[in-house]
């Protein structure tokens, strides 16, 4: 490091870099990393169970139920009464407990028709029901 002389009237600038702040920052970072590293590498030894099958099951297409303004039910492209719908939902749940019912109801349909479908789905044991809406 360059030191000035007493009695010198000329001002000399030092061309050397002051590394003291850099060393201070590096020491602080070193201490922080030394403290946090054991916490980051700590793990709990677990013996996880193996899956019986690695085959991915493709989700089946949902049952699409359309309810028009008059309260007529269309499951797929089949017109049904409420009694037929109940039996159809029961048989589908019996074959596949994860079946999904997607309801597309006209916005002017009476709520009673939708409530009857929801009750039929509940009675059949159907756990997954969704509503199809239209984006604006």
List the helices and strands and how they pair.
Elements: H1 20-41, E1 63-67, E2 73-75, E3 78-80, H2 82-95, E4 100-105, H3 111-124, E5 128-131
Parallel strand pairs: 1-4, 4-5
Antiparallel strand pairs: 1-2, 2-3
Query: What is the share of helical residues?
Result: 25-40%
Topology-level CATH name of the domain at 63-131: Nucleotidyltransferase, domain 5
Assembly classification = single chain
Largest sheet: 5 strands, mixed
According to DSSP, the number of beta strands is 5
Order of helices and strands: HEEEHEHE
CATH class of the domain at 63-131: Alpha Beta
Structure description:
With 136 residues, the protein is of the alpha/beta class. It is 37% helix and 15% strand. It is built from three helices and five strands. It has helices spanning 20-41, 82-95, 111-124, and strands at 63-67, 73-75, 78-80, 100-105, 128-131. A five-stranded mixed beta sheet has the order 3-2-1-4-5. The radius of gyration is 36 Å and the shape is elongated. It starts with 19 loop residues before the first helix and ends in a 5-residue tail after the last strand.
Describe this structure in a few short sentences.
The protein is of the alpha/beta class. The chain has helices at residues 20-41, 82-95, 111-124, and strands at residues 63-67, 73-75, 78-80, 100-105, 128-131. It is built from 3 helices and 5 strands.
Task: List the defining traits of the structure above.
136 residues; alpha/beta; Nucleotidyltransferase, domain 5; 5-stranded mixed β-sheet; 3 helices
């Amino acid at each position: 490091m360059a030191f000035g002389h007493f009695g010198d009237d000329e001002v000399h600038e030092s061309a050397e870099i002051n590394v003291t702040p850099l060393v201070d920052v590096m020491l602080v970072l070193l201490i922080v990393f030394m403290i946090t590293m054991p916490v980051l590498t700590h793990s709990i030894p677990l013996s996880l169970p193996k899956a019986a099958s690695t085959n991915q099951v493709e989700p089946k297409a949902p049952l699409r139920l359309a309810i028009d303004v008059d309260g007529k039910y269309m499951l797929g492209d089949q017109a049904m009464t409420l009694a037929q719908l109940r039996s159809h939902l029961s048989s589908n749940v019996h074959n596949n407990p994860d079946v999904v019912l997607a309801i597309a109801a006209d916005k002017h349909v009476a709520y009673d028709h939708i409530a009857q479908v929801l009750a039929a789905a509940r009675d059949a044991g159907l756990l997954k029901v969704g509503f199809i809406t239209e984006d604006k």
